[in-house]
Amino acid sequence: MSPAPRPGSGAAATLIAVMLAAAPHGAAATDDDESTSQTNTGHANTSQANTNQEAAAALAREIAKLQQELERQRAQLEVQAQEIERLRQQVEESQGTAARAKVAAQDAPRVSVTNARPTIASADGRASFSPRAVVQLDAAKHEQSSDGGAVLDFRRGSVGAANNRETNAARDLSDGAYFRRARLGFEGSIARDFSYRLMLELGGSGTEGPTRINDAWIAYSGFAPFTLQLGAFSPPANMDDGTGVESSLFIERATPAELSRALGGADGRIGLGVRGSGSRWMSSLTLTTRTAGDAEVFDSQLATVARVGWLAATAADYNLHTGLSGTWVLQPADQGSAIAGARYATRFRDRPELRVDSTRLIDTGSIDADAAYAAGIEIGANWKNWYLQAENFWFGVERPHASALSDPVFGGYYVQGSWLITGESRRYEAAAGAFQAPRPFVPATSSGGRGAWELALRYSHTDLDYREGVLSTAALVDSVRGGTQDILALGVNWYLNANFKLAFNYLNVDVDRLNPAGPGNLAPFGPSPATPPVGAEIGQELDIFALRSQFSF
Length: 553
Prior knowledge:
Elements: H1 10-22, H2 31-107, E1 110-114, E2 117-121, E3 128-143, H3 165-169, E4 176-190, E5 194-201, E6 212-223, E7 226-233, H4 239-242, H5 255-264, E8 269-277, E9 281-291, E10 302-315, E11 318-331, E12 345-346, E13 349-350, E14 362-363, E15 367-368, E16 371-383, E17 386-398, E18 409-420, E19 427-429, E20 434-436, E21 452-466, E22 480-495, E23 500-512, E24 540-552
Antiparallel strand pairs: 1-2, 2-3, 3-4, 3-24, 4-5, 5-6, 6-7, 7-8, 8-9, 9-10, 10-11, 11-16, 12-15, 13-14, 16-17, 17-18, 18-21, 19-20, 21-22, 22-23, 23-24
Helix pairs in contact: 1-2
């Protein structure tokens, strides 16, 4: 079927031409004039018809020309419509790609780096993962009297059987270097309210390893401001314990604080705890058992460790903290009925505030106990670039009910302070209830900067004697001759930046301790000459020079 003609087609031009030819061109002639004018009229009509036909043809040509122009414009519009459709599709695709890219960007993990510690977090911030590391390399030189041999030189370390290294090492403490800490691991959060940490320790005391668990815990903070924690961790035991190992004023903690944390806390202690904190307070209560990596026993120790602290006063340039701490051993570890000696042993001992050599110079030995405790009171303050902190501790052991022996008590305290000569200040952390390391105003770099410099001073006193008696006499049946230790320490700390630190310590150590041999314990160090004469002085005085290099993130 032929398509219907469009307006302006050739059919329309023909119709116009016919209409023009049929139209009248003048009035009708009368009969009298018909023959006279017939010839003239015919010529006129013929001329007019020719004119009309020419006009119609011209009009038709014009219409055809317009028709062609319309067709060209129509084709052009169709091309433009196709181009518009193509552009529209491109816009839609571009918008879709941008929208998908935006959604993808919103869902993509976020990577950040703070003080050289990288963190990968989910887009909504509800989950995170961050690697951690603490590496501390210690070196020391011990200045002590020459070794005179076990027969004439009575200096001794921890109580122990024959071939105990510390029996001889106390007379010649090891000089050298070793990795005190080499902790590697990671921490993060899951579903916002859950957090976790896994840290392995490759360092040690006197020598590195074996590799062991330092932290392996999960925590739930959905009961703000309180957090539940389960696993292996270091429960808050005192103020010195609340200061991170990266922020310690001296290379090691003061001995009284170390004895307090070791009783029921310390690194890798397995337990269940609850912690809470606000802008001016902190508290913690933890039920603990053995530490990860302990030797197997019949029944593990069970203890509670608690601490509470308050920010008593604060302003822009000072902070004053006070607090209390306590540990109660509900059940000492059971060594089994076949053990020779104390079945439920509790022991207090420590090194001279340095661990390049692992020898302990004060030691109560194993005391059979139903329970044991440590209680402490703490105070700390900073004012501008000055800092001061002190703690006092009481220790005690409850012997078995069937024992007729009296219950021994011990004590200790320390006072420490520093002056940051470059003007920084130690940072108070309310959640830890302790003062952390300063951040240098101008980190040390190859292009300049001096970092932060700190001068430190500490005095500590530890008394592990109970009814010790006098020189050259045997210990009483209920005596504990753990010794007294006084240490004066001077320190210089250089914080190059937030990650690197160098520390120099000088320690003057004075140990006064009598041979613990007595009724029921005639050879505490093994057969003579390992065990000195009855009542002999087995302590010593020495100087130690120590250096630590530290990297952490």
